[in-house]
Batch of 2 targets.
Target 1
Amino acid sequence: MNLVISGIFLDKIPLYMAILIPTLVLITTSLALVLITIFLPKFRYSWLIGTIGALISVISTFLWQLKVPLTFSLPTWQPISVLPFYPSWLADGYSWSYAISLTTFGLAFMTSSVIRKQSKSLDWAGVLFIISIGLLAVTSNNPLTLVIAWTALDFSELIILLNTLESKRSEEIIVFFSLHLGSVFFLLWSCIISISSGSAMDFRSLPNNAGIYMLIAAGLRLGILPLQFSINEMNIKREVVTSLRLISAASALTLLTRIPISSIPANVQTNLLFLTGLFSIIGGWIWLVSPDEYSGLQFWILSLGSLALSAFLYGNSIGSVAWGTAMILSGGLLLLYSSRSKRNNWLLFFGFLGFSALPFSLTASVWLRQSNISGLLIIPHVLAHSLILAGYVRHAFRHQSETDLNSESPWMQVIYIVGLSTLPILIIITGLWGWFGARIFGIWWIGAATIGFSVFIFYFYRAINNLIKAFNSQFSYIKLPSFISAIYWTIYVFFQKIIKLLTTILEGDGGILWSIVLLVLFISLISQIAH
C-alpha cells in the first residue's frame, strides 16, 4: 500500500511542476547573477551560470512533450465569495511553441553575448527574468493569470526604459506605459462583461460581446500606436530592449489562441480583417525602409502581429501561433546576429525560411482558412508578407557588424555560432515536430508567390522608395505616425490634468472625507462584480 501511494506521489510531481520548472530555473539564475554582481563583483563565471540556466530551461521546456497537455493551478484564494478566481497555467501545443521559442531565444542571447564587450551580468539577469515572466504569460490559462503577467512585464519595461532614455523623454515613456496599461484595462473589462453575464472567468466561456475587447487589448500591446523613439537612442545594449519587446509581443499574441472565434461577431471579423491588412502593409513598408533592423523592430512586431491577428480572424489559430513564433525566432536571429561574417550568413537563410510559408516550414499553415469570409481580403496580407520578406533580406545584407568576428578567439567564435544556431535548429524542428502546426503542406503557391514578389520588391526597392519620397515631398504635412502620437499625447495631457485635480482635492481640507467616499464606491463596485 505504501509503495502504491509513493508511486502515485512521485508520478504526480512532474505533472504539476513541469510547467513551472523553466520559470523557476530562470528566476533562480537571474537572482544568482544579481547576488554575484553585488557580493562577488570579481567573479569570472557569471556568463557560464547564466548560459547553463538558459540551457536547463530549454531542456525542461522540451520535456513538456512527454505529457502534453499539462495544467497547474495555485490554491483557491480566500475568501472565495470576494474573489473566486485563482492563477492557472496550461501547457499545450500552442503555449509550448511560444515557450520553447522564448527559452531558446534566451539561450541564444546568452551564448551570443560572449563576444559583446560591454555586456554585463545584470543585463543577462534582466533578460532571463523577463523571459521567465513571458513564460508565465504564454501559458496563462485564465485572464487573471494573464493580467498579472502583463502587469509584471509592463513594470519591467518601464524600469528599463526609464534607465535607458534621457530624462527629458520620461513623459513619452509614461505614454508608452499607459498604452500597455490600457491593454490590461480592456482585458479586465472583458472579464467584467463575462462575469456579469453569468459566465466563468476563463477563456473558454466568453460571451459574444467580450471577445472584441480582448482583441483590442492584444492590439494595443502589439504597437498599433508606435512611439517616436527607437532602440538606437538608448544608452544600454539594444539586445536587452529587443528581448523585452519580443517577449511582450508574444504575451499578447498568446491571447489569440484562447479567444473563441465565436465571441467575435461575423461583421466585426470582416472589418478587422481590413484593418489588419492595412496595418500589416504599413508596418511591412516601414520595416523595409528602416535604416536597420533595430530601428524597424516595432514595425516588425506590428506587421507580423497584424498577420497573426488576421490568421485568427480566419479561424486559423495554428497559423496565428506560427506567425508569432516566427516573429520571435526569425526576428531574434536577425537581431542577435550582430557580428556577421560571410561564411556564417547561412544562418539567416533559415531565418528567412522560418516565415516563408513554404510547405513543411514553420509558417506553412498561415494561409489556411477555417471561415466563410471572402478570400479576397487575404490579398493585402499577402502583399504585406512580401514587404516583410524583402525587408528581412535587405537588413540581412545591409547590416554593419558591431565587431569583427574573425578577430575573436576561436573558442568564442564557436560558442557564438553554435548558440545562434539553436534558433535555426528550432525553426526546422517546429516545422516538423512538436505542435499542431508541424508537418503541414499548406497552400504552397501563395508562399511561392510572396517570395517571388518579395524578390521583385527587393531589386526595385530604390525606384519604389524614390516614388514614395516624391509623394511625401508633395504631401509633407501628412505624417501618420506623428499625427497618431499627437492625438494620443492630447489624451494623455487631458488625463494628466484630471489626475492633478484629483490630487489637489485629496490633499485639501476635505481629503479624508473624499477618500472615504471613494473607498466606499470601490468596495461597492467590487461587491457588485463578485455577485
Target 2
Amino acid sequence: MKITYSPKGINNFHNATPINLCISGLTYIDYELHNAVEYYLISPRQRRRIEKHFCGVEGCACPSGGVTELFPGEYAIRKSYCK
C-alpha cells in the first residue's frame, strides 16, 4: 500500500516535505488514550528513513517525524498523518 506521510506540528519541526512510503497496511489502535489513535505499522528501516528525512540533524531533540515505538522493535506512524 502506498501512502504519503506528512506529520503535523512539532512532529515536522524542520518543515520537511512529505515522504512517500510503501507499507503493509497493518494497523494498530491504541485504546489507552481517551481518544483512540490509529497507527500504521512500519519497519525499523522505514523508521530510520522517516527520521532522517524529517530531521537528520545529529543531536537534535525534535520528534523526527513523529514515529511511535509501540513495543520494543515495533514502530508505527499515525494514520491521520497519511494520505
